[in-house]
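Standup notes
- DV: blocked on the single-chain target, sequence here:
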Amino acid sequence: MTALLRAEAITKRFGPTLALDALDLEIGQGEFFALLGGSGSGKSTLLRIIAGFETPDSGRLLLDGTDIAATPPWARPVNMMFQSYALFPHMTVADNVAYGLRRAGVKKAEAASRIAAALAMVGLAGFERRRPHQLSGGQKQRVALARSLVMRPRLLLLDEPLGALDAGLRERTGFELRALQRETGAAFVMVTHDQEEALALADRVALLDGGRIAQVGPPREIYERPASRFVARFLGAANVLEGRAAQDRFDCPDAGISCAGAIPADTVAIALRPERIRIAAAGEGPNTARGIVQDVAFRGDDSLVLVDLGGGATLRVAHPEEGGPPPDRGADVTLCWEAADVVPLPS
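- DV (later): unblocked, structure below
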């Protein structure tokens, strides 16, 4: 992968608050990249630094090898689509899309051609004369996207691009964003707190915690092989069990269980995904545990079952609908999982 953008030891403070802590990151050409994290993790600050709306206190921001940390926003081949969409209410759709072109001095004939192409790309051909108050939320989002794409940026920044949309529209618009990214060939960098959104759309995901990168990689890799307790708990809310490794097993005293698996000798915790645990007949497989059902919550295609193992340990189990009705509260159940599903976590 050829790097388009590289952040080197980027640090940013707001008074006593450290927003970014010597952060390093690389984004490839034509890549759909997601910055994922909770509130205060630093993801929005990093996006604003890339856009040029904030200046780092130290470090370098290299675009094609040139440091642009001090370059003003208008001089960067970067566009940003804001979470609020920031459309001008007194302007038509066409005028909103044309705004950047006019500022850049693009001639009218070329501007008209690019506006038409951008609106067609986002499915809004024929909406040129409408104003923002005449549009739905999804249509406003598309106008904001067209306004960014019409500038033909090499890097497009998306701040919570699907946050204002309802569930059905979010999914459809997400696929459309992915298709547009492939069509334009631009690199997209999306900030989101929604892990499903990040995992579904991005080529790679960077999970931020306290201004640092907790883990970066392809979605499946960081989901199935988290690098830390934080990553395991944030992505998919994995079960994290503390204990000690001994001869390819991992003993969890609080849970009263011993797990078989390829466990390095220095392992002090393991992760188990809820969907990897099955409610099964007693004694099935090398990894089993007995417990009492604390609670059950229906979630559509599965039910979340909380199982108390005793000693203060509780396992979250995703019981699929095709597996039959979930057990009742208070039921005595046996859980099992495969050795390959035991993920060692570093100290």
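- Follow-up: The radius of gyration is 24 Å.
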